[in-house]
Write a structure and sequence with these properties.
4 strands; 55% helix; alpha+beta; single chain
Amino acid sequence: MARSDSAADAANSGRLKQIALTYKMTRKADKKIGLVLAGVFLLILGVFLAIGFLIGHPVYLGILGFLLAFLGTAIIFGRRAERAAFGQMEGQPGAAAAVLDNIGRGWTTTPAVAMNRSQDVVHRAVGKAGIVLVAEGNPNRVKGLLAAEKRKMNRIVADVPVHDILVGTGEGQVPLKKVRTTMLKLPRVLTGPQVTATNDRLRAMGDLMSNMPLPKGPMPKGMKLPKGGGKAR
């Protein structure tokens, strides 16, 4: 029993340290995070307390309000921490792949389906919105890479809509922190079986990643591509 309690205490201590570290990292990029979290907590709690006094049950509504305020604060903290992390990754090679890895259920993502020697990359995600090609790199170079991949998708799965996103901060580009939101706002036009069938067809086609393994997340800036690895099959 003592060992179990000790292990639980160690796990809780580790989680608290991780939360504290995440908060410190987030605060560097988001100076108002403390005020925002406090405001969200007090607002939710205050609303429930006010309702509780109006209906004559301030204790019950206060407890419920406290729990919901804690939950709401945790959700807001998670979202702002994610945005801060993406903001710090902005401009790093492979950053968009890290965003796609965290897009959520319902999407099948494949990083680096097309790449050139300059480390301009196109990633692919398949979901009920269809196929989304996410490109990152020099806009002048990656647009051609993106257009070629889009033409290939239209040949292989002509009945599936293909969307393209160019990651960046320039005109016509989508900032890294808004990539996930942009994708989730796309209209859902495919059913579950259609998504599965699309993934099967694309897997049968094969990708660059099946021939050249790459680490997840941002790629090292000094990484060099092997000869012959500059084009997707």
